[in-house]
Amino acid sequence: MSNTAVFAGGCFWCMVQPFDTHPGIISVISGYTGGHVENPTYEQVCSGLTGHTEAVEITYDPELISYAELVEIYWQQTDPTDAFGQFQDRGDSYRPVIYYQTEEEKQIAEKSREQLQNSSRFDKPIVTAIEAKTAFYPAEDYHQDFYRKNPARYHASSGLREKFIEEKWQHEK
Predict the structure, then answer these.
(1) What fold characterizes domain 3-166?
(2) pLDDT tens-digit map of 55-108
(3) Could you confirm whether 11 is annotated as catalytic?
(4) Where is the active site (predicted)?
(5) pLDDT tens for each residue of 113-127
(6) Backbone angles phi, psi at 51, to 5 degrees
(7) Which one of 15, 65, 90, 116 has the lowest number of neighbouring Cβ atoms within 10 Å?
(8) What are the tens digits of pLDDT across the range 7-55?
């Protein structure tokens, strides 16, 4: 038995590895969701005209890892105070969003966001959106498992994110 979860947190290249390395994760696919264009290309999404975000679809075994645990991993990969992109990636297609599929997932995400807001970890409001999941379109093959296929370019593109995570979450690791 498996479930799926979809999260947008900036460049999807940087959102695969943090989930991919946990027990209970079956697969992590980079793709596009939340927009109005069917089967968009990377170039279309980057144009900002499709309404899609770059996102990851995580297939997981709920017996080994819970949706709530996935949400906690998600928070530790993003800047939840930045609604207009993530780190060096700017624009609508990079906005942070937790996409829920059930009312239970929505409640888990909302409760988690409220707890994070009340934690005083961040000086600014938590602005990550929580939206109903729509169609998910896998990205082109060259975007899949990018951190494995092209580690030098992956690390070059993830520097600001890694610095932020270190500053905000170092005690959680």
Answers:
(1) Peptide Methionine Sulfoxide Reductase; Chain A (3.30.1060)
(2) 999 999 999 999 999 999 999 999 999 999 888 889 999 999 999 999 999 999
(3) yes
(4) 11
(5) 999 999 989 999 999
(6) 80, -5
(7) 90
(8) 999 989 889 999 998 999 999 999 999 999 999 999 999 999 999 999 9
152, 172, 145, 157: which is closest to 74 by C-alpha?
172
DSSP characters over 44-61? HHHTT-S--EEEEEEEE-
Q: Where are the domains of the chain?
A: 3-166
Token pair belonging to 53: 């975000």
**5, 6, 11, 56: the active-site residue:** 11
Euclidean distance between the first and the last CA atom of the chain, given in angstroms as a whole number: 29
Structure tokens at 93: 């297609």
> Token pair for residue 32?
């596009």
Tens of pLDDT, residues 118-165: 998 999 999 999 999 999 999 999 999 877 877 676 666 667 788 888
DSSP summary character for residue 163? H
Q: Which residues contact 140 (CB under 8 A, 6 or more apart)?
A: 41, 42
Strand partners, 90: 85
Q: What are phi and psi of 123, to 5 degrees?
A: -80, -20
